[in-house]
Design a protein that fits this description.
The protein has 709 residues and is of the alpha+beta class. Helices cover 26% and strands 16% of the residues. The strands form four sheets. Strands 2, 3, 4, 5, 6, 7, 8, 9, 10 and 11 form a ten-stranded antiparallel β-sheet that branches. Bound molecules: CIS-heme D hydroxychlorin gamma-spirolactone 17R, 18S. Belongs to the catalase family. HPII subfamily.
């Protein structure tokens, strides 16, 4: 990972659009008033119309105790603008965090695609990425159990390409027509307005239990993938099968994958719940702080490329978004790396107003007949009008292409382009008279749709049907479950048990159990036992469930990267702590790529064995759930005192319960004992073995600390 100062260099967040027709120009408001980063006239407060304000403390009144005057345009404008600050939040994915960055091609693939970002090794393309939860509102917390959105806008030389994916490679439904039902069911219940940002309630599981096609996605959503440690430690997927088309017009199918350079990591469920209280902005803060300190998060972009012949040979339909292609069957080829290197200057202007559209493709990228994708092509354009209020949302800086754009679309609300001349239609012959006739279509280089239809599509009749192979709803759900390690299987069974325990409608639980039997008998039995329910008969399945070869690539734990890179270690200290031990821990952690955060009962400065130290955080506000490992640098006296402080005991108990490394000075023993810490590989002294242990989680410890389903 590149490390260099990152703070908001002003590179390219403004549109370079040169026009909207013939001769046009755009007067960006930010240029007229305050330029990005360097306001032109910071000294003087003005109204929106540029009139200097003499008094921003008192409104205009008739006498010192009289009524406020309608004439006070300064007051009226200020309150009027404030009253209208809010825009509708996204109907899904409302809570999100974004950043700017760059995509660099590491392997040119002109034989596969003519898309501009992939034409030359080393080619850089500006990007904006936004990560989100799905169900919660914009002000909800960062760590609920939920799918995460993973949307990337590539500002390519030939227009914007938006790869609007998730951190899970499959989806709940196969056909876009079911999306409103799915989302209504998972959002807060219509009559009572709760629960917020949670799937553990009646209506969601009612819908799921009636939609067997959701079973594969449910396995993912109930797995540790849905409680990521950091947005920087998640994979991303394009989900659908797309097409790549080369300059000769030859097309191949492709699936997109993002692989985090920091490796994947998740939290424990109990930890995720506690983080929600300790720091509702846990993921947003983590992303912002990492970029701000020059620890730029990065992901490799990988492709699974295949042709019709491969597609036809699979036991599932590649147009079905509830199916994946195991990496072991079709390896992923890495073609580039995305590095996020610049935080937004303004959350609303950029992250909130970012409009991603799966229909934004560029020459060289095309769609397929996936019925889920086809529905999305309509929805996203439509939703921007209702959210951003105008068809001119593409002129907002974060959405504007960096390459020139010219066309004859005109006017509309909030038009900021200023087209000149008469040419606002085409064809025209104005150029023959020496006038600017405006742009023309470009048959050679313009976007052309890949015309060949999938051979297996007869295409002649209009039908409301699903293709036959879409009927297998369980084989890949089974594949996912059986590809997990034992601890991950236990987490998954426990997550379903927990969620169903929140479902008051008993027939819904029973129906879901009947589906789980088709996924895996043992899983169904474990959930039933966890709920103390009888196992019902298996639900009838529309197609035969096949046992696919396990795909170890689907496990987080089996592929864990043991590193302190991007991880944060807490050092708990108090009166008399050994200054040398604190700095030794700090340097070992930093040497291994991690960062340290000091925690003490008081923040203002505590006397150590030598000198004093101000803590980064106060104990009560810095619980161990916010860190990847903890070091306890305490004297016996301080540890004894802290055994009577609940926050300190909980700090250690949670670190142990969340399977983290605990490094402890000899003096810390009383606190370890009070917190019920038992010696194991993850409980170390403060030497080199601590820095090594801190890079891991200790899943072997789990049976000692919780009863899993
Ligand atoms: Fe979305 N989705 N979606 N979705 N989606 C939206 O668009 C929709 C689907 C995804 O950071 C909305 O601008 C339909 C799959 C992300 O701004 C909306 C269907 C995948 C984001 C919409 C799907 C996604 C959205 C709401 C079924 C993964 C956030 C606001 C056909 C491949 C993007 C907006 C951001 C947002 C519709 C299914 C990912 C309403 C109709 C599958 C990451 O247009």
């Amino acid at each position: 990972m590149a490390k260099s100062p990152s703070r908001n260099s002003s590179a390219g967040a403004r549109p370079t659009a040169t026009g909207n027709g013939g001769e046009t120009h755009q007067q960006a408001p930010m240029e007229r008033g305050a330029k990005r980063g360097e306001p032109q006239d910071t000294a003087h407060l003005t109204t929106n119309h540029g009139v200097r304000i003499s008094d921003n403390q008192n409104s205009l009144r008739a006498g010192s105790r009289g009524p406020t005057l309608l004439e006070d345009f300064v007051l009226r404008e200020k309150i009027f603008h404030f009253d209208h600050e809010r825009i509708p939040e996204r109907i899904v994915h409302a809570r999100g965090s974004g950043a700017h960055g760059v995509f660099e091609c590491t392997r040119a693939i002109p034989e596969l695609t003519k898309a501009a970002p992939f034409q030359a090794k080393g080619k850089q393309t500006e990007v904006f990425a936004r990560f989100s939860t799905v169900a919660g509102g914009a002000g909800s917390v960062d760590t609920p159990r939920d799918v995460r959105g993973f949307a990337v806008k590539f500002y390519t030389d030939e227009g914007n390409w938006d790869l609007v994916g998730n951190n899970i490679p499959v989806f709940f439904i196969q056909d876009a027509i079911k999306f409103p039902d799915l989302i209504h069911s998972v959002k807060m219940e219509a009559d009572r307005g709760y629960p917020q940002a949670a799937s553990a309630h009646d209506t969601f599981w009612d819908f799921i239990s009636l939609m067997p096609e959701s079973m594969h996605m449910i396995m993912w959503a109930m797995s540790d993938r849905a409680i990521p440690r950091s947005l920087r430690m998640m994979e991303g997927f394009g989900v659908h099968t797309f097409r790549m088309v080369n300059a000769k017009g030859e097309g191949k199918f492709v699936k997109f994958h993002w692989k985090p350079v920091l490796g994947m990591q998740s939290t424990c469920w109990d930890e995720a719940v506690k983080i929600a209280g300790a720091d509702p902005d846990f993921h947003r803060r983590d992303l912002f702080e990492a970029i701000d300190s020059g620890n730029f998060p990065a992901w490799d972009l990988g492709l699974q490329v295949f042709d019709e012949e491969f597609a036809a040979a699979q036991p599932y339909d590649v147009l079905d978004a509830t199916k994946l292609i195991p990496e072991e069957v079709l390896p992923i080829q890495i073609v580039g790396r995305m590095t996020l290197n610049r935080n937004v200057d303004n959350f609303f202007a950029e992250t909130e107003q970012a409009a991603f559209l799966p229909s934004n493709v560029v020459p060289g990228i095309d769609f397929t007949n996936d019925p889920l994708l086809q529905g999305r092509l309509f929805s996203y354009l439509d939703t921007q009008k209702s959210r951003l209020g105008t068809t001119n949302f593409h002129q907002i800086p974060v959405n504007a292409p960096r390459c020139p754009m010219h066309n004859f679309q005109r006017d509309g609300m909030m038009q900021t382009m200023v087209p000149t001349g008469r040419a606002n239609y085409e064809p025209n012959s104005l150029a023959d008279n020496g006038e600017n006739g405006g742009p023309r279509e470009c048959p050679e280089t313009g976007f052309t749709t890949f015309t060949a239809n999938d051979e297996r599509n007869d295409g002649s009749e209009k039908l409301r049907v699903r293709a036959e192979l879409f009927a297998d709803h369980y084989s890949q759900a089974r594949l996912f479950f059986r590809s997990q390690t034992a601890p991950e299987q236990a987490h998954l069974a426990s997550a379903i048990t927990f969620e169903l325990s929140k479902v008051a409608l008993e027939p819904v639980r029973t129906r879901l159990l009947s589906r789980l039997r088709n996924v895996d008998e043992e899983l169904a039995a474990r959930v039933a036992a966890g709920l103390a329910m009888e196992l019902p008969a298996a639900a009838p399945a529309a197609a035969k469930t096949v046992d696919m070869d396990a795909s170890p690539a689907l496990s987080i734990i089996a592929n864990a990267k043991h590193t302190l890179d991007g991880r944060k270690v807490a050092i708990l200290f108090d009166e008399g702590s050994d200054a040398g031990e604190i700095s030794a821990v700090r340097s070992a952690v930093e040497k291994a790529g991690g960062t340290c955060f000091t925690v003490a009962p008081k923040v203002g400065g505590i006397a150590l064995s030598k000198g004093t130290l101000k803590a980064d955080g106060q104990l009560a506000g810095s619980p161990s759930v916010l860190f990847d490992a903890v070091a306890l640098v305490l004297t016996a006296e301080a540890a004894g005192k802290l055994t009577r402080e609940g926050a300190a005991v909980q700090f250690v108990m949670d670190a142990f319960g969340h399977l983290k490394a605990i490094g402890a000075s000899d003096g810390a023993k009383a606190l370890l004992d009070k917190a019920g810490v038992e010696k194991d590989e993850g409980v170390t002294g403060l030497g080199a073995d601590f820095a090594k242990a801190a890079a891991m989680r200790f899943y072997d410890r789990e049976p000692k600390v919780r009863m899993l389903a």
